[in-house]
Amino acid sequence: MPIDSTKNPAAQIEHRNSESNLSNEVIRDKALTVDAVLGVLGRPKQMDISSEGIFVPLQNGPAALYPGIDVAYDFVMPVRHILMQNNTNYSVYFEFDMPVKPGSLQLAPGAILRADMHIHTMHLMCLTAINVNYTEGACLVLRGER
């Protein structure tokens, strides 16, 4: 018996991901909704990806964060949505369009951040060295969407 994806958000995502070709360039499904995604504070958040659906590549930035150093990651054009997933065992500190400082926002280990805002530069810092957008192992995933 097939799963009724209208009543199960997880089934909706699984069903849509199996039907669409999700790549770094384009998300074809413009109305993906998730009922419970953990944000910065760990509270469930309603999420709606209803934009042009185009991932914007990073213009610069190293492949890793170094302990205690603010690193700026510029997108090739301003983005409307930020998606960050922390697949490491360390907290990552971040700011939008300004350097990281004491009291900056923090993305906990294993957490996902989805922010709807116009930015051009994402500033990141970690207290240990971690990889960014690495293809293997634990890393921080950073995406901007137009």
Share of residues in helices: under 10%
Q: What is the molecular shape?
A: globular
Structural class: mainly beta
From the alpha-carbon coordinates, what is the Rg to the nearest angstrom? 16 Å
Mean pLDDT: 75
Give the helices and strands as they follow along the chain.
Answer: HEEEEEEEEEE
Number of domains: 1
User: Span from first to last CA?
Assistant: 38 Å
How many β-strands, per DSSP?
A: 10
Q: Number of helical segments?
A: 1
Placed side by side, the strands forming the largest sheet appear as 3-10-5-8-6-7
Uncertain stretches: 9-45
The biggest beta sheet reads: 6 strands, antiparallel
Proportion of β residues?
Answer: 35-45%
Overview of this protein structure:
This protein has one helix at residues 9-19; strands at 32-38, 44-49, 55-56, 64-65, 71-86, 92-96, 105-107, 112-126, 130-131, 140-145. The chain has one domain. A hairpin with an 8-residue loop joins β6 and β7. The chain contains one helix and ten strands; from the N terminus they run αββββββββββ. It is mainly beta. The radius of gyration is 16 Å and the shape is globular.
